[in-house]
């Protein structure tokens, strides 16, 4: 394995991995337009929107943050929701740190690029050199695409004016549903979603905006810690993405 | 909390989580139950966000308006395996159309 790990990749393999990275970057970049438009519709300005894509760089968390703020939620509730959605990136880091073996500044850069897509393409390669190339090239391709398209979406969204007239508030709900849909493969996931939905529904009239979503996170604890819970199977998706990964960064 | 404070706090927390994966020993989080909770966390949050974005009005009261119809269309499209952008754009169109007709 170590001899194989030291072996340089053939030119053809490098091309294949790079092409995969670019196609993933182009695909997720397109979603950046939705985020940019929804973010300015929620009341953030173009700079704040762009700061999220540059610095937070995790699509589900970014959408959740602007969604909670747009619904009138407090900053604390928005940060809590966004952060809870980002916990999985920490788990990805456990896997990618073993592949990358990075130190110093490169480790700081690798951490920022650790998202669904870079992890999926990286760990999906058979040989170590391709794993590293896959992680870095996908992470960079998605970062560039996501940020450019965020800017486009934010500028266009800003020019549109009243977001309700264009149904952008409903588009946010649809975006969350689209992120949720591929995760509902197991009975545990379905039970969690139903329980969390009910908690949010019942808590909304009583609690300040944003708090019901944070409270609903308890549904994951209740179902996940239950004894004898059915464990989710190994990743079996068509495209080889991670279990529960978003179509966003 | 100003919007900028919120934005920067969320960015710092997100980066801290990503970096923690590179700094913490793997065995801390590899027990089966905690990985199950981590996998279910996005499910719970996203389901709650769908409900709140669709059925809750500004004052926290529950309403059925154009957003609910738009979500219904989105769910049908998701069941038909439509592309993310198609789902989001269709929901916006339905809500905008219904409002233009004076409903919701």
Automatic annotation (TrEMBL), chain A:
<keyword id="KW-1133">Transmembrane helix</keyword>
<feature type="region of interest" description="Disordered">
    <location>
        <begin position="229"/>
        <end position="249"/>
    </location>
</feature>
<keyword id="KW-0812">Transmembrane</keyword>
<feature type="transmembrane region" description="Helical">
    <location>
        <begin position="140"/>
        <end position="160"/>
    </location>
</feature>
<dbReference type="GO" id="GO:1903785">
    <property type="term" value="P:L-valine transmembrane transport"/>
</dbReference>
<dbReference type="InterPro" id="IPR011606">
    <property type="entry name" value="Brnchd-chn_aa_trnsp_permease"/>
</dbReference>
<protein>
    <submittedName>
        <fullName>AzlC family ABC transporter permease</fullName>
    </submittedName>
</protein>
<keyword id="KW-0472">Membrane</keyword>
<feature type="transmembrane region" description="Helical">
    <location>
        <begin position="21"/>
        <end position="44"/>
    </location>
</feature>
<keyword id="KW-0813">Transport</keyword>
<comment type="similarity">
    <text>Belongs to the AzlC family.</text>
</comment>
<keyword id="KW-1003">Cell membrane</keyword>
<dbReference type="GO" id="GO:0005886">
    <property type="term" value="C:plasma membrane"/>
</dbReference>
<dbReference type="Pfam" id="PF03591">
    <property type="entry name" value="AzlC"/>
</dbReference>
<feature type="transmembrane region" description="Helical">
    <location>
        <begin position="64"/>
        <end position="87"/>
    </location>
</feature>
TrEMBL record, chain B:
<feature type="transmembrane region" description="Helical">
    <location>
        <begin position="37"/>
        <end position="56"/>
    </location>
</feature>
<feature type="transmembrane region" description="Helical">
    <location>
        <begin position="6"/>
        <end position="25"/>
    </location>
</feature>
<dbReference type="InterPro" id="IPR008407">
    <property type="entry name" value="Brnchd-chn_aa_trnsp_AzlD"/>
</dbReference>
<feature type="transmembrane region" description="Helical">
    <location>
        <begin position="68"/>
        <end position="98"/>
    </location>
</feature>
<keyword id="KW-0472">Membrane</keyword>
<protein>
    <submittedName>
        <fullName>AzlD domain-containing protein</fullName>
    </submittedName>
</protein>
<keyword id="KW-0812">Transmembrane</keyword>
<keyword id="KW-1133">Transmembrane helix</keyword>
<dbReference type="Pfam" id="PF05437">
    <property type="entry name" value="AzlD"/>
</dbReference>
């Amino acid at each position: 394995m170590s001899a194989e790990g030291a072996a340089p990749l053939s030119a053809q393999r490098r091309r294949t991995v790079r092409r995969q990275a670019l196609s993933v970057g182009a695909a997720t970049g397109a979603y950046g337009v939705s985020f940019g438009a929804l973010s300015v519709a929620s009341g953030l300005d173009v700079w704040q929107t762009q700061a999220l894509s540059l610095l937070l760089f995790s699509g589900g968390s970014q959408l959740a943050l602007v969604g909670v703020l747009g619904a009138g939620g407090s900053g604390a509730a928005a940060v809590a929701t966004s952060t809870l959605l980002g916990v999985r990136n920490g788990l990805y880091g456990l896997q990618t740190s073993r592949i990358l073996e990075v130190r110093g500044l490169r480790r700081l850069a690798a951490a920022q690029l650790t998202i669904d897509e870079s992890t999926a393409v990286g760990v999906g390669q058979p040989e170590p050199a391709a794993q590293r190339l896959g992680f870095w090239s996908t992470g960079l391709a998605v970062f560039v695409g996501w940020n450019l398209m965020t800017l486009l979406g934010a500028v266009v969204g800003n020019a549109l004016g009243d977001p309700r007239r264009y149904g952008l508030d409903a588009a946010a709900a649809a975006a969350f549903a689209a992120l949720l849909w591929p995760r509902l493969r197991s009975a545990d996931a379905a039970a969690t979603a139903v329980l969390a939905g009910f908690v949010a529904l019942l808590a909304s009239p009583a609690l300040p905006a944003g708090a019901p979503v944070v409270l609903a996170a308890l549904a994951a604890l209740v179902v996940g810690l239950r004894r004898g819970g059915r464990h989710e199977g190994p990743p079996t998706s068509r495209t080889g993405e991670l279990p529960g990964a978003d179509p966003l960064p | 909390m100003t919007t900028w404070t919120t934005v920067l706090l969320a960015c710092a927390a997100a980066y801290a989580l990503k970096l923690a994966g590179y700094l913490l020993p793997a065995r801390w989080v590899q027990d089966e139950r905690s990985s199950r909770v981590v996998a279910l966390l996005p499910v719970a949050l996203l389901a709650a966000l769908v409900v709140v974005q669709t059925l809750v009005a500004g004052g926290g009261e529950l309403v059925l308006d154009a957003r609910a119809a738009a979500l219904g269309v989105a769910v049908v499209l998701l069941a038909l395996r439509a592309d993310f952008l198609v789902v989001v754009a269709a929901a916006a169109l339905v809500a905008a159309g219904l409002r233009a007709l004076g409903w919701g």
